[in-house]
Write a structure and sequence with these properties.
single chain, alpha+beta, Rossmann fold, D-amino Acid Aminotransferase, Chain A, domain 1, Dna Ligase, domain 1, 3 domains, five-stranded antiparallel beta sheet
């Protein structure tokens, strides 16, 4: 069947992400058009869109989904019920939206960052969290989140001061706590990008001085070194287990004692750093065509 209509799924406003997202989104859009595909941008929560008119929906940059998670789940139900082909698959997107998926990875032998789960309505106990994680500094963030939203990097004293604010947030949604990994500031965080389960390229993200957030929209810097073979093999293993049927996957992790410790498996709307690696757009296109057969 010849593919007639492809929707690239985005959101109404990309906010602080705009400059970076627009350049990658525009680059991908133009490349797919030059390949002869009929593509258009569609806002996921636009009630006027008839999703059944599209042969495929590619989830690219709906970067407000975690602010409207119930509406996003409803939208996923709608496009699934309409029989739309969604990339990545709806079941995968649902699973990946809540960081409780870490438990599934850990059960399969993936090394993840130690995590304390804070359920909605619970009280945050700073002393207990620090004792359990054995760290002098911790990160506290929502289970459904992105872009460092409501993310705290705290010493034990700061955690006590922030307890009331965290408890207010816990009334609205579940959170998690993890040790602050100093290597993210000193050595950086690796991102391994895969298309259709096949490795494409790698970036190493480092935070700006005095910050812990490696995202480029917070001033982080992007490097493109050749990754250590052991780290890449670990990332490939994770994709083989959990994302082999995905058009795109991004494995984020930090190297500790030469081993990859997973920070995030990004299967919904990751920035793919398509501008950092020659041939990445062609690899994306070839993976897309294989998915559309």
């Amino acid at each position: 069947m010849q593919i007639q209509q492809i929707a690239l799924i985005t959101c109404e406003s990309l906010g602080s992400y705009t400059a970076n997202a627009d350049s990658e989104d525009e680059r991908l859009y133009q490349f797919l058009k030059e390949k002869g595909l009929t593509v258009s941008w569609q806002v996921w929560d636009d009630e006027n869109v008839d999703w059944s008119q599209f042969d495929a929906l590619i989830i690219k940059s709906p970067w407000d989904y975690f602010d409207k998670i119930d509406a996003f789940y409803t939208w996923l139900d709608k496009v699934e019920a309409a029989g739309c082909k969604v990339l990545n698959p709806v079941k995968t997107v649902r699973w990946n939206a809540d960081k409780i998926y870490f438990k599934d990875l850990e059960a399969q032998g993936v090394t993840i960052v130690p995590t304390v789960w804070l359920e909605q309505g619970e009280e945050f106990n700073a002393a207990a969290a620090f004792a359990q994680l054995g760290s002098e500094k911790i990160i506290v963030k929502p289970r459904v989140s992105g872009g460092a939203k409501n993310t705290f990097a705290l010493t034990q004293e700061e955690a006590v001061e922030k307890t009331e604010q965290i408890n207010q947030l816990l009334q609205q949604e579940p959170f998690l706590a993890q040790p602050f990994i100093e290597e993210i500031k000193t050595a950086g965080e690796w991102s391994f990008i895969f298309f259709n389960g096949n490795y494409s390229h790698t970036v190493l993200k480092t935070a700006k001085p005095g910050d812990f957030r490696v995202q480029h929209f917070f001033g982080g810097t992007i490097h493109t070194p050749t990754p250590p073979a052991t780290l890449l093999a670990s990332a490939q293993h994770i994709v083989d287990k959990f994302a082999k049927d995905c058009l795109y996957a991004r494995v984020d992790g930090v190297a500790l004692n030469s081993k990859l410790v997973l920070m995030e498996l990004e299967l919904i709307e990751p920035f793919l750093f398509l501008g950092t690696s020659p041939g990445s757009l062609e690899r994306y296109y070839q993976a897309l065509m294989a998915q559309l057969q």
